[in-house]
């Protein structure tokens, strides 16, 4: 019996050894499976992070490209406005030199200033501070082409040349002693606002007409020619009539452009010409005598009247003899 038991025990030893090895193998496999699971989670997490990083990099790249394009457009726009401002200031300086030259008594009448070269940018603007229409230089030239008034020192010749309304001249004479720019500050400007400026800037679009008048008085109106394919048949923002709108304007600090017809533009430009001359008088840049300045005011008032009636919309030559 003891021998058979020993034989049985001897036979069981390899079996038990195999069982132990099997158990150890199962434990190792279990540990390996847990490690593989952890590594799989790490791999999935890294994959998600890599995907998010890739998406964020693409988004950042698109944002940088978009910002670069926006900056490029902004710089091009600023360059275009700067060139336009230089053109307008060149024209402003030329017109101002001609005005000062014409008012200087010691300069021969035959002497003239060379016209400055102006780049053709297709844009005319009313710019803050010194904003003038591109038509200003032409308007000054046309006014200079008209026969000059007689020598103001020769009262007899002057009286034969023109008979002025004594009330209008009295109001102007009082204003020129203290040339304020506010319309309520003098009977002279109040009359011109009532009789010329308000009628000239009266349009079907009442609210925008008021905004235009305010912007012109504050010298914050921008107006430019619509070039190329931008010119279109549309409803004029002021007259509210569908017609060819070859100009557009921007009021004050507003970033919105409004398309307007040439008739609307000419009326605004005529009022701006008046305000520019009045500002020159206010700044002391006009050295003419009172009668000569008064006659210039009358010409500018006549220009507003003609623009209001639409006389200036056909061509410049048709109205030259009227001014």
UniProtKB/TrEMBL annotation:
Region (Disordered): 130-158
Pfam families assigned to the protein according to its UniProt record, in alphabetical order: RAB3A-like_C (PF25555), Sec2p (PF06428)
Keyword Acyltransferase: no
InterPro entries hit by this protein: RAB3IL/RAB3IP/Sec2, Sec2_N
Superkingdom in the source lineage: Eukaryota
Coiled-coil positions: 15-99
Keyword match Coiled coil: yes
Family annotation (Gene3D superfamilies): 1.20.5.4880
Keywords: Coiled coil
Domain GDP/GTP exchange factor Sec2 N-terminal: 14-87
Family: Belongs to the SEC2 family.
Descriptive protein name: Rab-3A-interacting protein-like isoform X1
């Amino acid at each position: 019996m003891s021998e058979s038991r020993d034989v049985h025990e001897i036979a069981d030893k390899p079996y038990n050894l195999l069982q132990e090895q099997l158990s150890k193998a199962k434990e190792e496999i279990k540990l390996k499976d847990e490690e593989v699971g952890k590594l799989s989670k790490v791999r999935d997490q890294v994959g998600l992070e890599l995907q998010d990083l890739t998406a964020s990099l693409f988004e950042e790249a698109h944002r940088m490209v978009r910002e670069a394009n926006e900056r490029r457009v902004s710089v091009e726009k600023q360059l275009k406005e700067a060139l336009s401002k230089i053109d307008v200031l060149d024209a402003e300086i030329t017109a101002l030199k001609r005005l000062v030259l014409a008012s200087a008594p010691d300069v021969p009448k035959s002497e003239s200033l060379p016209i400055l070269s102006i780049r053709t940018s297709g844009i005319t603007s009313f710019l803050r501070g010194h904003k003038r229409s591109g038509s200003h230089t032409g308007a000054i030239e046309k006014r200079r082409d008209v026969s000059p008034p007689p020598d103001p020192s020769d009262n007899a010749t002057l009286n034969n040349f023109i008979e002025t309304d004594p009330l209008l001249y009295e109001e102007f004479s009082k204003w020129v002693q203290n040339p304020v720019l506010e319309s309520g500050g003098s009977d002279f400007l109040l009359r011109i606002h009532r009789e010329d400026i308000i009628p000239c800037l009266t349009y079907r679009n009442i609210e925008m007409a008021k905004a235009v008048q305010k912007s012109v008085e504050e010298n914050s109106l921008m107006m430019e020619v619509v070039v190329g394919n931008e010119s279109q048949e549309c409803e004029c923002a002021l007259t509210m009539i569908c017609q060819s709108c070859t100009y557009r304007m921007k009021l004050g600090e507003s970033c919105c452009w409004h398309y307007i017809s040439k008739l609307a533009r000419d009326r605004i430009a005529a009022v701006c010409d008046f305000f520019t001359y009045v500002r020159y008088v206010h700044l002391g840049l006009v050295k003419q005598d009172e009668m000569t300045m008064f006659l210039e005011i009358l010409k500018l008032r006549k220009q507003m009247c003609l623009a209001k009636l639409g006389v200036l919309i056909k061509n410049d030559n048709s109205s030259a003899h009227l001014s």
